Every structure is written in structure tokens, then in C-alpha cells.
Fold Thaumatin-like protein.
Amino acid sequence: MKSFTAAAALAFVSSAAARTFTVYNNCPFTIWPAHFTAPAFSSTRPNYPTGWAQGAYQAVSFSVPDNWTAGRIWARRNCDFSVNPGPNSCLDGGCNGGLECDINTGGGVPPATLAEFTLGASDGNDWYDVSLVDGYNLPVRISNNKGCHVADCAVDLGPNCPAQLKGPFDSTGFPVGCKSACEAGLGDPVNNPNCCTGTHNTAATCPSSGVAYYSYFKSNCPNSYAYAFDESSGTALWTCSAGQRPDYTVTFCP
Ligand SMILES: *[C@@H]1O[C@H](CO)[C@@H](O)[C@H](O)[C@H]1NC(C)=O
């Protein structure tokens, strides 16, 4: 009896060494979600293909290691992988590799709204955010089952996107993205406050006030990570105690 209990406890410990992530497509159209892990941390990838098709109102769940580090989940729009599968197979968010993103170089083509995660960081927290640093292509929400703060960008930023940033567009002319000022090529290529590059490469020298159209993104999506040093806003990066082993849901078109 005693050894049975010990074995059951061990089984519990090993199954608790992972979290359940659910991706829910609340958009009224098919999307092609993907995940990517920064190559330096690729020993901790989720146990699921790196890209898949997901119809409207479908949910998929998969297991993610407790120490998933520098991971991202996003979704691609208007894909066709039948010819020359790769980054241009989708109107936005496409990746090297085609349907399944290359584990080393398949981080996705901007503009794309990113759900970013580092689980079990050294401070004992999970860290997560909805990033608009690479621009916007779909509304996204990160929620969890432990009552920790929601991170989201719930607004469709395409239609009212400033003209310089708007696009790409689908065959009807509808904007399926809104680029960041940096991705849109506004400003100097090497020394650019929109990109926090050159002399602007620190939080102190790259304030949000110097980033063109920052307020369009941040005012519509106040819980999002809207430029490279948005921690200072206090509403960009969110935490949840890793000890509670939260499960997360990433909802597209929440
Ligand atoms: C995550 O944990 C696994 C298993 O313990 C280990 O092999 C890997 O190096 C860890 N990765 C990171 C990024 O800490």
C-alpha cells in the first residue's frame, strides 16, 4: 500500500511538470496558429506540431513544459500552402517551413500579434504578454485558470490603422494587419527611435513618446506590450506565480 502511494505521488509529480495550453479560434474564419521557441531555449518546446490549420470556433489543447522559455504563439491569415510553402504562403504571419514553422528560423513574418511566454522564470513567476512590437494581425487574449491578469489586444486594429502602417490587405481590400512604425520603415534604418536602435537602444533613450503611433496601439490595447521597452507603462508584461502551475488559453478574436 505504501509503495503504491509513492508511485502514485511520483506519477502526479511527473504529470505536473507540464502545463496545458488551449488555443481557441473565436474568429469566424479559419486561421493557421503556430508556435516558436527562441532557438537558444529550444530544449523546452511544446509537445505539438509548430503549425496547424484551425477552423472557426475550434479549440486545440497541448502540453507545454513548465520551463518553456522565450516562446510565442501567433496565428496566420489567408494561407495557401499548396505552392512554394514558406513565409509567403499566408497574407500575414507566415513562417519559414510552411504549415509547420521551422524550429530554428520559423518565428513568423510581421505584422503579427504575438502571445509571448516565459514559464517558471528565475523569480518564480510565469511571464506573459500580448506583443504588438511586430505589429498586429489578429485580436488576441491570454487568460489563465488561476485568476491572474488577462493580457489582451481585443480590438481589430486594422480598419482604423494609420495609413502609413495599414495592411496587408485581403482580396476585398480589407486590412488584415497594422504594422508597427518600425516594421513600416518609418525613420532612419540604423538609428531609429521607432525601432529602439542605434543611440535609442535603451529604455532611457527610447521612450514611448518617441515611437510614432505608439498611442494608437496602446490606447486601443492598454494591456498589450506595444513597443520594445513598454515595461515602463506598467501594463505590458504580466506575471502569475509558477508554483500554482497555471494553464493558459490563447484566444484569437476574443
Ligand atoms: C527545462 O527543463 C528540462 C528538463 O528538466 C531541461 O532539460 C532543460 O534544459 C530546461 N530548459 C530551460 C530553458 O531551462
